[in-house]
Amino acid sequence: MILYKPCHLLNCSDKKLGYSNSNLFTVTTSPPSIKNLKREEQQQKMEWGLISISILGLGICWVLNLVVRSMNSWKYEYKLGEKRHKLPPGDLGFPFIGNMWSFLRAFKSAHPDSFLNSFFTRFGKTGVYKAFMFGNPSVIVTTPEACRKVLNDDQHFKPGWPLATVELIGRKSFVSISYEEHKRLRRITSSPINGHEALTEYIGYIEEIVITTLAKWSRMGEIEFLTQVRKLTFRIIMYIFLSSESEPIMEALEREYSTLNYGVRAMAINLPGFAYHKALKARKRLVAVFQSVIDERRTLKRDGVAIKAKKDMMDALLEVEDDNGRKLTDEEIIDLLVMYLNAGHESSGHTIMWATVLLQNNPEFLQKAKVEQEEVVKKRPAEQKGLTLKEIRQMTYLSQVIDETLRWVTFSLVVFREAISDVKINGYTIPQGWKVLVWFRTCHLDPETWPEPMKFNPSRWDSLVPRAGTFLPFGSGSRLCPGNDLAKLEIAIFLHYFLLNYRLERVNPDCPVQYLPHKRPKDNCLGRVIRI
């Protein structure tokens, strides 16, 4: 029912408003025209049509997504026959890229653990998950027991690094050679960098470099602390392997290694502008440099020219023979150098930087570590000028600081193996030929083993003996990192002199952290080293 109010009460004839009573009455009482009704009906049909098309489009997208996401499963799982029902839970992702987009998105964000957390949420905490990573069907292992089994079982697992990584590090490096080759080369190359005699020989050189470098930094003002520490550790490893102390050569090589490392964990796209393409070019330049050093050493030796009294790793690699009298080829020597010089400075440099930052952020732990170093100096005989290996091995709390930093940082995110035959882990089958990713980060940040895992707390180690597989900073098994003792020695010597004489004042203490290729502040820890 429509109620009409008399127009004279509405004052509808107000001339100021520009309309009359009769006009208003005509508008409000005229019925809707047939034309308007048809227009509204057509509009409703169009709206329903658009809704139907949208629903249909979403349905098609859902079906296409389901089909596309199933392509990897059809390709890699169905050919396994009945064994496919015993695969771990998981998701092989999209064709070609697999789960790499999710991985890179997570590790380029502030929440890298969101990648594996998505597996935990969808499939439960089974400890093993199928995925498609770095171009291969893979199984990710995340529990200490599973990780330890894979790393220590040379009968069922061999190195399984992606082909793209092998192309960068080298086909004759430790990442790709067989168990027997690895055993032989490890024995040859570990003697100059491990053991009491070798470590004692390097203490004096490392001390001298650390002392002079810290003094230099304190006069430089604002520096990228991480960049400078990496240069320091690279200088040390260059001296041990090549007896080189040339600043221009070291800086040029260190830049090439930085480019190489960005490509190791990038998608393997060999096109100009992409990180992997740049990394391949960096490797070519590194190979050219090392080849020229080999040629020069061989020429000098042939001509009977004595170049130095001290033998370095290059001399050892050129002279060593196996049981059949076979010497190493140039390719083998170069690939070993590429690998050792990279691993020998990157991990030590990042660990030193983070240990320094974490101690500065925790005054209680800083003071405790500093007091221990002061006690070392007080107990030293008057005639003794520098550190000894015995003193370093007695630095109990500093050792805890280093171990806690290694756990907290987890420099090596993952290592790769390949199943030689079908293997059962946690009740699931890992098929022959599938890659296995040993995920160190989950072992080091497991709250059941490490209460408040994201908290830096060296004192947690006071009475702690880590359960097997829960602490793997240098790997495990026959392929344990051969340079772990040298790395810890470098870190301990640096922290000893830094704690006694310097402090770090960061420009951006709240700077965001990036996780690829390694965990670091985005500003490379910009700050000032101040003498105290």
UniProtKB/TrEMBL annotation:
It is found in: Membrane. One of its GO terms (cellular component) is membrane. CDD domains: CYP90-like. Heme binds at residue 481. The keyword Hydrolase does not apply. It comes from the Eukaryota. Keywords: Heme, Iron, Membrane, Metal-binding, Monooxygenase, Oxidoreductase, Transmembrane, Transmembrane helix. Pathway: Plant hormone biosynthesis; gibberellin biosynthesis; Hormone biosynthesis. Its cofactor is heme. The chain crosses the membrane at residues 48-68. It is a single-pass membrane protein. InterPro entries: Cyt_P450, Cyt_P450_CS, Cyt_P450_E_grp-I, Cyt_P450_sf. Catalyzes three successive oxidations of ent-kaurenoic acid giving gibberellin 12 (GA12), a key step in gibberellins (GAs) biosynthesis. GAs, which are involved many processes, including stem elongation, play a central role in plant development. Belongs to the cytochrome P450 family. This is Cytochrome P450. It comes from Achyranthes bidentata.
